[in-house]
Predict the structure.
Amino acid sequence: MFYLNVNEDMILSTFERKHATELYVLIERNREHLSKWLSFAVYTNNIEDTIAFIDKSQKRYIDNNGFWAGIWYKQQLVGAIGYLYIDWKANKTEIGYWLAEEFQGKGCITIATQQLLNYAFKTLKLNKVEINVAKKNVKSLQIPKRLGFVEEGVIRDYEYLQGRYHDRIVHGLLRKEWENQK
Ligand SMILES: CC(C)(COP(=O)(O)OP(=O)(O)OC[C@H]1O[C@@H](n2cnc3c(N)ncnc32)[C@H](O)[C@@H]1OP(=O)(O)O)[C@@H](O)C(=O)NCCC(=O)NCCS
């Protein structure tokens, strides 16, 4: 289990089945907000879907292949962040995240991403972390930018969301770049 007391306001903790209702209710409340950029929100239609997601995330953790953690802000679940996979041959991973609409603008994702960067480089000893964002997702593009990631290129028509194709911008941060930030 991954559990981190980040500061007096924020806790990161891997999802367990006991969180299913809280998580499903949050997704349900933010379905429109999340569906603009994330297809999981479109396909999460009942609590069973959320339980299946949590079980998959736990298996991913056991298999040493990433995990999803909830972000609790002032004791309330406000979003999620995780490693989508871990490539142990190339020693790299990709971070994904989302936040409930009303909790945007407080730095929750920037702070949580910083924690997952520390964990990736210090504890997991990885060499590279990617954050990949749809070209028009202006808010999300600010996260890798704010954290010193290098923009590496564009994958054209990477995904189909809301009736159209979206280009995706790949951002990467290498261990040596992260070390130089300190
Ligand atoms: C993408 C998303 C997570 C960004 O949320 P966000 O609230 O803008 O990001 P953060 O939590 O890091 O907050 C940053 C904002 O808080 C402000 N802030 C306040 N305190 C801060 C702090 N201590 N550290 C950093 N930023 C802080 C920043 O100035 C910034 O505000 P601004 O947007 O007005 O410039 C959110 O919009 C979202 O979930 N969208 C839908 C799903 C999605 O797109 N997921 C990503 C797919 S790639």
Q: What stands out?
A: The chain has a mean pLDDT of 97. Residues 33-34, 37-38, 97-99, 104-111, 133, 137, 139-140, 143 surround coenzyme A (CB under 6 Å). Residues 156 and 167 are 4 Å apart (CA to CA).
